[in-house]
Amino acid sequence: MPKAGMAMEKGVIVAWLKEIGEKVEFGEPILEIETDKTTMQVEAMSEGYLLSKLYDAGDEVPVITTIGYIGQLGEEFPHSEEIPAQSVPSAAKTQPSLEAKFASIAPTAGRILATPAARRLARERGVKLEDIPAVGIIHARDIPIGKAVKATPLAKRQADARGIDLGGIRGSGHGGKVFSADLTSSNKGNPQKLSGMRRTIAARMLRSHTEIPPVTLNSEADITELYTLRQQFNQLQGVKITFNDLVVKACATALREFPGINASFTEEGIVHHEQVNIGIAVGLDDGLIVPVLKNADELSLKALSAKAKALAEKARGGKLLPDEYSGGTFTISNLGMFGITSFTPIINLPEACILGVCAINDRLALAADGTVQSRKYLGLSLTHDHRCVDGAGGAKFLQRLAWLLENPAELLI
User: Fold this and answer.
1) Pick from 33, 215, 229, 310: most CB atoms within 10 A?
2) CATH code for 10-103?
3) What percentage of the chain carries pLDDT values higher than 90?
4) Is residue 91 very low, low, confident or very high in pLDDT (cuts 50, 70, 90)?
């Protein structure tokens, strides 16, 4: 199990892309894993044949733990699984039996040794592997017949993915056959298995909420001129600039002027970061991830927009590299597209502040010449860590940010 980032402690195997006995080329993807941040493919570090899978899809494995072996057919290796006979030359068929391979190997703590066929049969029959009295590795023949669970293939896949025991469900089909719709009603009292990403989000948000004394300041900016400038810029440049791009650019400019906001609290003291690295929260189906725009204050608006779009696309595709979602010094979370007028974003540790971007609303306002005009206002919610950022400091930063959005020519200089 590779260690993708310094903070990674374990990963979940999503799927094997090769079967035992298949040829493997150097650099070829052989499996997909889920880290606490994203899903990624693991490439083969050598060529040969996939000789063994020590863990199945869905298993959570500590980093730097052996999860399989690549070698030459017939080669001896520890922890081996049986290779399909049709894919193994005669020389390979003389290798020791599976029990002989495992005889001198102590099972990993908490790890039940079982063949893929045994695991699949156990799931189909609703049998728990830990309840099977077996010495060494468990084979398909060791799985008791019991009462077979009748379920559609879709229901079986969904139950397996959500950790639902089909054995305890009385289906709506003939003879109690379980359909996918039966899982919804039966799962009302059953917890859904947490993904690695959701578990990490829960832990970090709880830590942030319990460790930080947060204060949220709400303000707004008149972005009528910014709205017009964006339309003109897109027409002239032929580039799709979003309001979020403009907010990121304004934040990058303001953070350079307010180093106390671009900071982190530590027990040794307050750290003022030299780089302005802005994280942009990207919502996913099972959580969110925050890709980071490094040195955002040094990027032009056009370059910033292009890089933000590229990172967001990689995030949604689960292809972000660890360096692309680490090292942030300030985070922006945008819920404006949902009509949210204000909210309390939770700080992304170890950062000191996070900005919530809200919806754009049209309002009538009295102009300097006494006329009534329709203006556009953008809501802004800044949460700051009161251990290192006082209310006045947060308010001044928010005031400067609003001014930059109201005077957008500053963003193009």
Assistant:
1) 33
2) 2.40.50.100
3) 43
4) very low
| H runs (alpha helix) in 238-386 | 243-257, 301-316
> One of 139, 272, 273, 386 is an active-site residue; which one?
386
pLDDT score at 93 = 39
Q: What pLDDT score does 286 carry? A: 75
Residue that has been written with the tokens 């040094």 in this structure: 298
Look at 66-70, 135-139, 328-332, 338-342 and tell me which has the smallest mean pLDDT: 135-139
Helix, strand or coil for residue 357?
strand
209 among known catalytic residues: no
Which CATH number describes the domain made up of 213-412? 3.30.559.10
**Where do the structural domains in the chain lie, given as residue ranges?**
10-103, 213-412
Residue 302 falls in which region: left (phi positive, over 0), alpha (psi -120 to 50) or beta: alpha
Q: Is 386 exposed, middle or buried (0-12, 13-18, 19+ CB in 10 A)?
A: middle
From residue 178, alpha-carbon distances to 1, 123, 145, 151, 318 in Å are 36, 14, 19, 4, 32
Instruction: Provide the pLDDT confidence category of residue 146 given band limits of 50, 70 and 90.
Output: low
Would strands 330-334 and 353-366 be described as parallel, antiparallel, or unpaired? parallel
Measured CA to CA, the distance from residue 96 to residue 87 in angstroms comes to 17
Round to whole Å and give the CA distance between 347 and 349: 6
Q: Which amino acid is at 186?
A: S
User: 248 and 332 in contact (C-beta within 8 Å)?
Assistant: yes
Contact 130, 112 (CB under 8 A): yes
The string of pLDDT tens digits covering residues 188-223 is: 555 667 777 788 888 889 999 999 999 999 999 999
Separation in Å, CA 118 to CA 88, 102, 127, 284, 382: 21, 16, 10, 34, 54
pLDDT digit string, tens, across residues 130-139: 777 655 677 7
